[in-house]
Amino acid sequence: MAAHASVPARGRHATPARHRPVLSWAIPATLGLIMGCYATAIVRGGGVLTGTRLALGLVSGAVLAVLCFGLGRIQNRLPRELRAAAYGVLTGGSIGFLYSLSGASILSASVIGLILGLGGLLVSYYYFYTRE
Fold it and tell me: Cα–Cα distance between 80 and 51 in angstroms, integer?
């Protein structure tokens, strides 16, 4: 009676998900759009939207999107510790940059970026450690 437990199931082979190529550029593009809009809103401060403020938002969003896309392309080749550190640096750097746009000092923006970067490192390390 226990022989059926060792018979391989038919049609249950792991196939690559079809939505993965879409998500490889959709998630970085969405994060870049959110950061660009938020950076523009911070710099604008309720005032008039000028070309330089819009350019700052577009460039900062594009840089984050490119960095996220690049990290997503190489993340499987990195060990989990280095991968978690890369996500922590990306998180801390982007949050610190956004905080510095609000007019805060460089020291306080660096401390906020460092704290949130360490938080991002710990969360991503825990996620990678429990999934591998």
Answer: 41
